[in-house]
Design goal:
Number of strands: 2
Helix content: over 70%
Structural class: mainly alpha
CATH superfamily: Tetratricopeptide repeat domain
Largest sheet: 2 strands, antiparallel
Strand order of the largest sheet: 1-2
CATH topology: Serine Threonine Protein Phosphatase 5, Tetratricopeptide repeat
Shape: globular
Amino acid sequence: MAVRLLETATLLEDRAVASVVSFRLANSADLATADLAFTCVARQLGGAAALLGNSDEAAAYLQQALDIASSVQFCPEIALAQLELAELLVAHHRDRRGEAQSYLDSAAIEFER
């Protein structure tokens, strides 16, 4: 349930809760959960890190989430990780716009599967 709390805090932009829950979940970044719906803990940590202004940490978590989702071939989670990576790169790493476009193109393909 902590993963869902982190997701909710990030969506509501509650930085205080996101910070506390992220700290508690950091050691679980390599896990995926399917309590209510499948998600990678790393993707939720990436979203929280982006919210907290830690773009490099967010990118690392999102890449980890992409690797985990790809290893189990779960297309929706792959697409979400790619979309979030693209958004992050456009917002914080303007020199990586080509990479962002590639993630966005791949996400579109994954969403259609």
